[in-house]
Known about the structure:
By secondary structure, this protein is mainly beta. It has one domain. Helices cover 13% and strands 40% of the residues. The protein contains two helices and 15 strands. It has helices at 83-96, 139-152; strands at 2-3, 6-8, 17-20, 37-44, 49-55, 60-68, 77-80, 103-106, 115-123, 126-133, 155-157, 159-161, 175-182, 185-191, 202-206. Strand 9 (115-123) and strand 10 (126-133) form a beta hairpin. The N and C termini lie far apart (38 Å). The model is unreliable at 9-31 (pLDDT under 50).
Amino acid sequence: MGHTPRHAAPVLALVPILLIGGCSTSPTGPHDLEGLSIRLDVSGGIAGADISYVVESDGSVVGLRCASLCAFAPGDTLHRLSPAQAEVLVAAIVSSGLIEVEGLVDYGTQCCDQFEYTMALTDDDGEHTIRGSSEVLPEGMARLVGLLERYRQGIDPIVIQMEGDLDGWSADAVQIVEATLDAPLLRLTVRFGGGCERHDLDLVAWAAIRS
Length: 211
């Protein structure tokens, strides 16, 4: 049995990186998407992108519309977030300020070959929606858009553990068969065993060694 995860992150000096697999969840705290869903519509660019997908509260990334620059059918599950990835996404949503948006905020219109993004978060308070290209969105919102786009493409960001140790993470054996770096993508081909219905593989960089 094999799996080929792709991870996107800058190469970090003096930071040990562990590939962690298994059926347990991240020990790093709340990662609850319950009650949240976030939709992203992507349009524009030179080739005229026309893409829409949603991250559901169970961590499923589901395609809604694929008219250009994509390859999925409506209703396809494009990715399933691991607990650690869900936690990263929740943190990005909170830091972006999207939860504080009331109604629709338009940061500008598309120009030239820029991609236009419409991002809508639905929670218990209703819908919070922003629109704009990556060039005009506030930094936190642009980072959130980038994170969602990587999840849509099946690219898993490296989880950065800034404090504490790695004792709580699953340590099931995973064999790295091949590794190639095509910055900013690290491609790993791995083999693993086990009878669980689902395996969550996260690449964890423990940054505490730098302090």
